[in-house]
């Protein structure tokens, strides 16, 4: 639909290929729109939940400015579930990249994987899947390490 509307009908962006930053816009929108919506809903929900907590009312009653209360108390505590969802969304992005790179004729690991499956190159398929899996594991490790930074009550021994 993006290609049909923005490339064919309006002619604003190229539909396939590489070369200029304009070639990245449609694939980025196609790949990231669902994840942005999920992360935004999660952030909003977590922020509203934390805003109702007693310690936020206490911070306001002590005379702290609204910006300081939101940045120091609310956002930091609301980021814990948001970071979790963001880490899990990477799995969807890695899987979606396979389809997006193929549809928009972009070079990348997803397209390499599809081309290797078509030519039955088992070694490249295994290596590509291993690389994508390791990337996902490393991102989830970074998410776990971020928990310690965001919530000082969490400690890993």
In short:
This protein has 157 residues and is mainly α. It is built from six helices and no strands.
Helices and strands, with pairings:
Elements: H1 2-9, H2 22-51, H3 54-61, H4 66-103, H5 109-118, H6 122-150
Helix pairs in contact: 2-4, 3-4, 4-5, 4-6, 5-6
Mean pLDDT: 84
List the helices and strands in order: HHHHHH
Q: What's the shape?
A: flat
Count of separate DSSP helical elements: 6
- Strand fraction band? under 5%
- Which regions contain 5 or more consecutive residues with pLDDT less than 50? none
User: Main β-sheet, in a few words?
Assistant: none
User: How far is it from the N-terminal to the C-terminal residue, by CA?
Assistant: 50 Å
What radius of gyration results from the CA coordinates? 21 Å
- Number of DSSP E strands: 0
State the secondary-structure class. Answer: mainly alpha
Helix content: over 70%
Can you offer a commentary on this structure?
It is a single chain. The longest helix has 38 residues, at 66-103. With 157 residues, the protein is mainly α. The chain has six helices and no strands. The termini are far apart. The radius of gyration is 21 Å and the shape is flat. The chain has helices spanning 2-9, 22-51, 54-61, 66-103, 109-118, 122-150.
Keywords:
157 residues; mainly alpha; flat
């Amino acid at each position: 639909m993006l290609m049909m509307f923005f490339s064919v009908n309006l002619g604003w962006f190229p539909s396939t290929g590489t070369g200029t930053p304009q070639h990245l816009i449609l694939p980025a929108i196609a790949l990231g729109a669902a994840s942005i919506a999920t992360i935004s809903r999660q952030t909003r929900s977590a922020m509203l939940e934390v805003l109702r907590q007693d310690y936020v009312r206490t911070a306001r009653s002590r005379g702290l400015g609204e910006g300081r209360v939101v940045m120091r108390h609310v956002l930091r505590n609301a980021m814990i579930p948001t970071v979790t969802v963001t880490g899990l969304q990477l799995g969807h992005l890695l899987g979606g990249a396979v389809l997006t790179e193929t549809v928009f004729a972009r070079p990348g690991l997803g397209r390499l994987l599809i081309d290797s499956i078509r030519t039955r190159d088992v070694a490249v398929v295994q290596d590509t899947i291993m690389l994508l899996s390791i990337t996902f594991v490393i991102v989830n490790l970074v998410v776990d390490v971020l928990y310690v930074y965001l919530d000082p009550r969490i400690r890993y021994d």
